[in-house]
Amino acid sequence: MIWIKEVSKSFIQGDESIHALTNISLHVKRGECVVLKGSSGSGKSTLLSLIAGLMQPSQGEVRVDGKEISKLPEHFSAALRRQKIGFIFQKYHLIAHLSALENIMTPLIPENLSLHVLESKAKAVMEQCGIAHKAKMRINRLSGGEQQRVAIARSLINDPLIILADEPTANLDEKLSHELIATLEKLKQKGVTLLIATHDPLFFDLGFVDQIIEIHNGELIV
Ligand SMILES: Nc1ncnc2c1ncn2[C@@H]1O[C@H](COP(=O)(O)OP(=O)(O)OP(=O)(O)O)[C@@H](O)[C@H]1O
Ligand SMILES: [Mg+2]
Q1: What are the residue boundaries of the ABC transporter domain, all occurrences included (predicted)?
Q2: Are the beta carbons of 138 and 98 closer than 8 angstroms?
């Protein structure tokens, strides 16, 4: 489902080049759950962004469901993302002045669905994430953990084949973290492919995780 072949990513900053990822190869099979662990700055978010086609690798290939997302023009990578990928961003990227419900509906706006269908889909994922009671609240009135649950609900609205989760429990207490893990386990049972970047030890001893991969200074440890 996710094929990464000899991928490197560097960022140029001034006259300095930052090597965020070096020669990464990785295969996540359809329906697998993979945990990517590594300390801060090791390259986890960069790797997830490359898989989602949100940035291009400096070298190498990234394939998602058979398509080379790293080579697609923005219009097509956006469509692939919208149809197949749910992304839980580390920094949420929610729209502060919109309500929770409106934020959750945004990924489906280009699909031209009726407002009624959009709302019922949004309400279903809000229920699933335990945030339905905050549907009408503006994002900037919600707590960090509530915003995180809105971000998780938004990632599920397109019924994705793949979920890329970047530190999904960073702002959740232990009870909510366990609820999130239960939601992820149910998605895995439905056949969703999961890649979770985290340093939360709760993820390191779960029965439904197929692989734990460690990244250090932009390189996978084998
Ligand atoms: N847009 C960018 N421009 C310059 N450097 C960047 C950029 N994005 C990431 N980096 C650098 O790449 C390296 C990897 O960053 P990344 O965000 O992928 O790490 P991370 O493992 O997700 O860390 P954290 O656990 O803190 O979220 C870091 O040294 C970071 O400073
Ligand atoms: Mg990160």
Answers
A1: 2-222
A2: yes
pLDDT (tens digit per residue) in 115-159: 999 999 999 999 999 899 999 999 999 988 899 899 999 999 999
Contact 4, 57 (CB under 8 A): no
Work out which ligand 1 atom sits closest to the CA atom of 49.
18
Structure confidence by residue, pLDDT tens digits, 23-53? 999 999 999 999 999 999 999 999 999 999 9
How many other CB atoms are there within 10 angstroms of residue 126's CB atom?
Answer: 24
Pocket of ligand 1 from Cβ distances under 6 Å = 11, 13, 18, 20, 38, 40-46, 90
Mark the residues whose beta carbon lies below 5 A from ion ligand 2: 44-45, 90
Residue nearest to atom 25 of ligand 1 (CA): 40
SS3 of 222, please?
coil
